[in-house]
Design a protein that fits this description.
The protein has about 270 residues and is of the alpha/beta class. Helices cover about 25% and strands about 25% of the residues.
Length: about 270
């Protein structure tokens, strides 16, 4: 049956939309890229995974950064907290309270079993009142690190990479590997200083599209020095696949340009890997 012009336009645009959706394997949107002492927004990320939207970390600036990025609390379907510093978890209490009290929205919380007790101690003081528990705010999934413990968020596979004591002695922490249905993947270091002692490098494969890595332009004991990161991964990953994050506020464009094709992640920009 021949299409009228309006119907034909709708049909064509629908196919274009479907085609684009199939080609977009992973879309990453930083809500901020700064560290704990930033004057701007913390290093927290939205990862668009088909019908699901994952929030990686929820720092104290989340109340501002999410809105400025043009998103609502209820758009977030899944949450992973990489470690328990305030720039990564400090905004979760307010987020959970708003979702519970105002929106009746209960996202999935993927929580590492070894971190659960400490996690509940950190967020529980403000949330666990009047008989409420973590299960009143989230659909809780207890998961563990390691290739054998991979889990699915929709059609996307997630692996937690243990980085305990590599950011700060005595602190549990973890990175992520997220794999799309196409098998293309991205890696996310979260905060780390001793990257050479982690499994991040071993997780890179021929389908790796990007490594989002913590860097510092000065040598400090709790973050990776940028030159060391470039040198360490240079034999397995071209520089254009290094995505630097968590860097200092005052880094100039001239300083960034010294690192050639490496990408300095910017707040609010969308990074699409297809």
């Amino acid at each position: 049956m021949p299409y009228g012009l309006p119907a034909l336009f709708t049909y064509i645009m629908g196919n274009v939309h479907t085609s684009l959706k199939e080609r977009i394997h992973l879309k990453i949107k930083p809500l901020g890229v700064g560290g704990a002492f930033t004057k701007y927004y913390h290093n927290n990320y939205l990862v668009f995974m088909g019908e699901r939207t994952l929030l990686i970390d929820a720092g104290t600036t989340l109340r501002y950064s999410l809105k400025e990025a043009g998103h609502q609390e209820t758009e977030i379907t899944d949450i992973i907290i990489t470690h328990l510093h305030s720039d990564h978890v400090g905004g979760l209490e307010e987020y959970a309270q708003k979702c519970h009290a105002l929106f009746k929205h209960k996202p999935n919380l993927w929580i590492r079993g070894e971190m659960r007790r400490e996690f509940e101690e950190v967020v529980g003081k403000g949330l666990f009142n009047n008989g409420l528990t973590i299960d009143d705010y989230f659909i809780v999934h207890t998961v563990e690190c390691g290739h054998e413990n991979r889990f699915m968020i929709g059609e996307y596979e997630v692996e937690l990479i243990k980085t305990d004591h590599l950011h700060l002695k005595g602190m549990k922490s973890m990175g992520l590997k997220i794999t799309a249905p196409s098998k293309r993947n991205i890696l996310f270091s979260s905060d780390i200083a001793q990257h050479e002692k982690s499994e991040l490098k071993e997780k890179i494969d021929g389908n790796t599209q990007a490594l989002f890595h913590d860097v510092s332009f000065i040598r400090v004991p709790v973050h990776s020095f940028i030159d060391d990161v470039v040198d360490y991964y240079g034999d397995v990953l071209e520089k254009s696949k290094l995505y630097f994050m968590h860097y200092q506020d005052d880094v100039s464009e001239e300083e960034m340009a010294k690192y050639g094709d490496a990408v300095f992640v910017k707040k609010g920009e969308e990074y699409i890997f297809s």
